[in-house]
Amino acid sequence: MTKIKKISIVGFMLFCFMLISFGSALPEGSPAVVNVMIDANVQHAPTPEQSEMLGSSLLNLSNEIVSRGLNTTIYATNDTVSARRLAITYQGTLPGVELALHGMGVDDKLSMMSDAEQAKLLNKSYEMLYSCYVCGGQHIDIKGFMPQAFDQNEDTFKNLQNLGIVYDAGFQAGNIYRPGHESDTWPYPIDG
Fold first, then answer.
1. How many domains in the chain?
2. What's the whole-model pTM score?
3. Domain for residue 155, yes or no?
4. Cα-Cα-Cα-Cα dihedral of 81, 84, 90, 96, to 10°?
């Protein structure tokens, strides 16, 4: 079994475990809210086998999630869109599936880039994802972003605002947060 197949199987098992665990961790009487976040990354210039595995894995995950009536957000890099445009386009047409920005590739280090470099990278990533639509259909509405390795800075926030991005999933309660939001586990507004 190849390393990619093992990772896919482990990822699917983790997904199933999370569905069971998170459902039982809610306080009694709380509404169950599940939004699965899929980090759709592929190395730059993947081999045909890696590209095929990515497409198959995304399709299998989406089929499982959509068949259960759950919502999911697929954070796709530019490299992923380039490798599997048709698969990403298809995913974006499924009910309850949202496509969101994830930068250009797995090695993005936004905090190490100038404001202009970030703007160029995020704009190109946005344009690539925005181009994933069925001819004659509507373009997807890109609302979200998650930086690679949660790496971002104030310039990132400004550039996301310029793109009209509504939310940034680059925070972790108690670990990476904005002042005053140390324990927040749900998205929160940021001034400006």
1. 1
2. 0.76
3. yes
4. -60
